[in-house]
Every structure is written in structure tokens, then in C-alpha cells.
Amino acid sequence: MELKSCEVKEYNPFEHRKIEKPNTTIGTLIHLVKGTLGTGILSMPLAFRNGGFAFGIVGTVVSGIIYAHCVYLLVSTSRKACRRSFVPMLGYTETVENVFTYGPRGVKKYAILARRCTDAQLLLNSYLLICVYLVFIGSTLRDIVQHDYQIDWDTRVFIMLAAIPLIFTTQIRELKYLVPFSAIANALIITAIGISMFFILKEPISLESKNMWPAWNTLPAFIGTVMYALLGIEYVLPNENKMKRPEHMLGHCGVVNVAVCFITLLYTMVGALGYAQYGEETKGSVTLNLPANDALAKSTQLLTITAIILSTGLINYVPTDIVWRKIQHKIPPKRHNMAQILFRFGMLMVLTAVAAGIPELEPFVGLTGSISGGSLVVIIPAVIDTVFRWPNEFGRMKWILVKNVLVLMFGFIVLGIGTYFSVVDIIAIYE
User: Fold this and answer.
1) Inter-CA distances, 250 with 61, 89, 253, 377, Å
2) Closest listed residue to residue 418, CA positions, set 378, 380, 384
3) Which DSSP string do the residues of 303-322 spell out, in sequence order?
4) Cα R_g (the chain), whole angstroms
5) φ and ψ at 293, to 5 degrees?
6) If we measure between CA atoms, which residue out of 117, 66, 84 comes closest to residue 233?
7) What one-character-per-residue DSSP string does 364-408 give?
């Protein structure tokens, strides 16, 4: 028994990982930034419209801190579970199952259920994101075509057209091959943000008549939009498991902290200045507020569309990997390639139909942020950290347990109230 305890302490999962195509630290940083940096940043002025200028700044920074902390909980718990179980790596759902399997007697029987619920949340999150991307591309294309060519087609037509290039990007299967796409998408998004900031700062900015604090009925929309903007936790463990130097993921200057600090600063700046300029006229994406007859302003929309198309391969990586691992053993090996092609294409068609059914950007953004942000980003990491530490590893006066309970309360507020108000908004569209 003593030997086993010694082995647990000495076991280093990093030393036992066999990765055919490892990713560099810089490549991982690019992936994590890209996994979070998308249409969400363009929705930040909308978040500030719902949250108010002063509360928006504080709320975005606090949300960024909570996000970074929950990522730390997920990664550190996964590493501890690997050491305890003598396995080199665990994914998000595998970590959840492992923690419950080796946890207190009362939760062991829920291990499979916990894994299935986590898988369902990961699938829902990624597929909702793709739906948001389709709606964003369709809405942007509609505005461009209507202004330039006076063609008044329904948004649904443009959503279906938007699916065509995604047929190709969703077929990419290796994270390593997605790095160039993520790098280009990052550059395009940052360029679009730079141009947007040029137009935002071009005219004098005034806080006169701008709300400083949220109303009770707009606060859930603020939280949902911010959590949507910060989504990306599902890419953390897949990326860490593919790293050449996984020890660089955490730490004061680790990949997670660098990525989250950069994202939070950028989001706060764009949200605050965008709302200060456009006020109550702020739309679902700040690019839609830019002058429609200006070529440079229009380029932001085209840059963003291109970035989203290039990003969809990464968004599609997690759900496809989850489903494929569950069904591949049922398919003859010689048909795996064709089966993957057909599955990826079929899911894209289903998501296109869903996006066409709800072609409104703002409620979709809030719904995605509330469901996925509340569960994946906050609740699950806090739960597995609590279960792993139970009952005696909560520090002096059990302060870690108290902290985790507060984090869980925040997660359930985001999930419950945010989802309710988003669904009400979606229902109101069809009344």
C-alpha cells in the first residue's frame, strides 16, 4: 500500500503521453485565443447596452476572472485525476467520469450519468455556436446585398448560402492542421476590431444619456452575452493533451492566464467604447453599426465572415470527436473515412436548418452564453473540484468549499435566469 502511495506521487502524466503530432506552446495559445475570440467580441457593445457602462466594465473583468479560475479548476483537477489513476491524459468528459468514479461513495454511481450530461453539454455548446455563426454570416451578407444591390432576400437564404464554405472547413480532423486557420482567423478578427475601433473613435464619444447600471430585466442578457463571448473552455483540455510542453498551460505566465488577460482586456475596451459611441442603437454585432456606404467599414464585415468560416473547423472539432468515439466501433474500419465525411456533412445540414428556423442573432447569443457558460464554464469545473477534494482537502476553515459554493451559485444563476429570459425573447419573435 505504501508503494502505491509513492507511485502516485512519482507518476507524471506528461512523461507518459505519446502524441504523434504535438502542438507548440504558441500554437496552443493561438488555439485558446481563437476558441474564445470570435463573434463574441463584436457582441460586447450589446452586452454593455444591457449592463450599463460602469457595471459593464466591472462585470466583464469579474467574468474574466471567474472564467480563468474555472479553467484552472478544470485543468488542475484533470491532472490530479491522471496522477491518481495512472493515465497520461483525460479529456473534459473523461475527467468528469474519473472524478466521480473514484470519488466519495455517494457519487460513484453517478459517474456514467455525469459523463453523459457533460457530453450533452459539450455537444449543445459547440452546435449552438455554429448556429450563431451561421446566423451572423447570414445577417451580415443580407445587409451587404440589400445595401449594394437592393436585393431583398430573406435572411434564411443567406444562412443556407453561408453553409456552403463550412462544408469544407468542418471536414478538417486534426488540431495541428487547424492551427494555420486559427492564426489567420485571429489576425482577421483583430484587424476587423481595429477598423471598428477606428470608426468608433472617429466621432466624439460621450457618456451623456448612457446607462451606467443595468435594469433588472436586462441584467440576464448582459451576463449571457459576456459568457457567450468568453466561451472556449471546451478547447482547453484537448489542446493541453496535444501540447509538446503541457506544463506551460497553467502558472502566472501560463497559456491560460495570458490568453484570458488578453481576451478580457480586449473585450472590455471594445464593449465600453462601442456602447459609449452607439448607445441604445447598438446592434448584435458592432460591425452592423458602422457606415453601410463606407468601403473600409464594409471590409470589417467581410473580414469577420472570413474569420468565422476559418474558425468553424475548430468549433466542430470537439463535438465530432465526442460522437465519433462513440460510434466508430460500429462501423467497419475501411468505411471510417466516408462515414466521417457523411456525418460531418449531415450535422452541418441539421444545424443550418436550426439556424434558419431562428434567424435572429441577439437571443441566440444570450441563449448560447447562458446554457453553455453556466454549465460548462462554471458549474462543472466547480463540481468536479469539490468532488475530488471531498471531504478533507478544502483548506483552513473549508474556505475552498465556501468559494466553490459561491461559484456554483453564480453558475446556476447564469444557467437558470439567463436561459429563461433568452427563451422568452425567442418566443417573442414569433408572436
Assistant:
1) 20, 16, 8, 17
2) 378
3) HHHHHHHHHHHHHHHHHHHH
4) 22
5) -100, 10
6) 66
7) HHHHHIIIIIIIIIIIHHHHHHHHHHTTT-S-GGGHHHHHHHHHH
Residue 430's CB: how many other CB atoms inside 10 A?
8
SS3 state of residue 23: strand
Which band of pLDDT confidence, cut at 50, 70 and 90, is reported for residue 7?
very low
Query: Is 52 in contact with 212 (CB distance < 8 Å)?
Result: yes
Q: Cβ(271)–Cβ(42) under 8 Å? A: no
Give the residue carrying C-alpha cell 469579474. 62
Among 377, 73, 70, residue whose Cα is nearest residue 223: 377
Closest by CA to 33, choosing from 230, 180, 223, 175, is 230
Q: Which three cell numbers stand for residue 263?
A: 481576451
258 Cα distance to chain centroid:
17
Given a contact cutoff of 8 angstroms between Cβ atoms, the answer to whether 137 and 305 are in contact is yes
The mean pLDDT value of the chain amounts to: 85
131 within 8 A of 279, measured Cβ to Cβ: no
Return the DSSP state at 370.
Answer: I
What is the DSSP track for 34-61? HHH-SHHHHTHHHHHHHH-HHHHHHHHH
Q: Average pLDDT for residues 136-142, to the nearest whole number?
A: 87
Q: What share of the chain is helix, strand, coil (3-state, %, to 5)?
A: 80, 0, 20
Q: How far apart are CA 319 and CA 67, in angstroms?
A: 21
- Total-model pTM: 0.81
